[in-house]
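Sample entry (239 residues):
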Amino acid sequence: MDFFAQQWSTYRAVVDHDLMEHRGLSAAIQAALSSWLAARGPQAPAPALVDLGCGDLAQLGPLLRSLPLASYSGLDLTAAVLPLAAAQLQGAPFACQWRCADLLAWAQGALADDPNPQPVDLIHSSFAVHHLNDTDKRSWLEGCRRRIRPDGLLLWADVFRPAGETREAYLQRYLGRVEQGWSVLSPEQRQLVQSHVGQYDLPAERGEIETAAAQAGWHWRWGWQGSHGAEALALLTPA
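Predicted structure, serialized as tokens:
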């Protein structure tokens, strides 16, 4: 098994066993989108959705297919997942576009194949932005604010640190959770998760990121919070 296949099979096992509460998160995303669509009313134009770090869409594909979208654009830095995502939306009743691209570059309008970026109605990102450092997270929030329509919605699902918790304390707690509570994974899979989390995860501290979002022109509210003090869904609307 090559490295990508090993990584992706581990990720799929985490999702399939609901170790990061993807089921509760997906229900919260569906509820948030339903509420937003209802508030717009039936006469509003069909929305354009951009998915930053779309992954394989195995979890969200059925929900996306049911939405009255004008278009869907999926971006991911891992090119190998894009055909998997495209298969999930094959035959969807709206236009789909796929890009191997960086989510921060998209927010900053810096993609070479998108020289004249248009505003969008919906931005979604799940478990991707925590790989950015704090400065880049602020830049991402600022860029998304510029790119969204005045009545738009940003759905940001991710891991976040509780107020006052350091990254070191967060990592100790999260890695312990993997070791003690994720026994359905093989030892090799747990080691792969722990290595990835320890090397790449830079979760935002909740109070700090709420302040940064307000400074970037967003109104922030929590749409869902998992039971482990990490996974959560933030719903941001233009202030």
